[in-house]
Amino acid sequence: MGTNKVKAYYDEAYPPVPSKTTLFWRKNIPWQFIRFIILNIKIMRIVVGGHS
Question: What does pTM read for this prediction?
Fold first, then answer.
């Protein structure tokens, strides 16, 4: 029988680490609120447009 070798994971198997700028925008509450409003407006346009 052969020996069982444990293979290490390749670097490509790990998810990318977000940059400091990306983390800043993800944690910025005012920015998240603005994005939330924009998303809701987009959804409302679709819903209202479907009911005409």
Answer: 0.60
